[in-house]
Amino acid sequence: MDCIFCNIVAGKFGTEILAQNEQAIAFRDINPLAKVHILVVPRKHSSTIAALTEEKELVGLFALVREVASKFTDGQFRLQFNSGEKEGQTVFHTHAHVLSGRAV
Ligand code: 5GP
Ligand code: ZN
C-alpha cells in the first residue's frame, strides 16, 4: 500500500488524530500554511472529491469538517479541495484542507 493517507488512516505513522468518525479522520497538515491547517480525510480511498460519490461517505466527511471547524477555529475558516495535479493536488487520496488564520 503506497498511499500516504491510507497508511495514516491505518495508523502506520502514529499521526495524532484530532477528531474522527466512522467515515473520516482529521489530523494536522505536516506543512501548515495557516495558523490552523487540518486535513479531513475519508477512511476509504478515493482519488479526489469528484470521485467520492457515496452519500454516506460525503455526509461523514462534511460532518467531520464541521466538527473540526467548531473545535479548532474561531468559526471562520477556508475549506479547500485541491483536485488534480494542475490544481495543486500532491496526495491522491481525497482530503479537505481546513484553514484558519492567514499567517503560520
Ligand atoms: P494537496 O497538495 O494534495 O492538496 O495536499 C496534501 C497535503 O498533505 C499537503 O499540504 C502536505 O503538507 C500534506 N502531507 C503530505 N504528507 C503528509 C504526511 O505524511 N503527514 C501529514 N500530516 N501531512 C502530509
Ligand atoms: Zn489512500
UniProtKB/TrEMBL annotation:
GO terms for molecular function: catalytic activity. InterPro entries: Histidine_triad_HIT, HIT-like, HIT-like_sf. Pfam families: HIT. Gene3D superfamilies: HIT-like. Residues 4-104 form the HIT domain. This is Unannotated protein. It comes from freshwater metagenome.
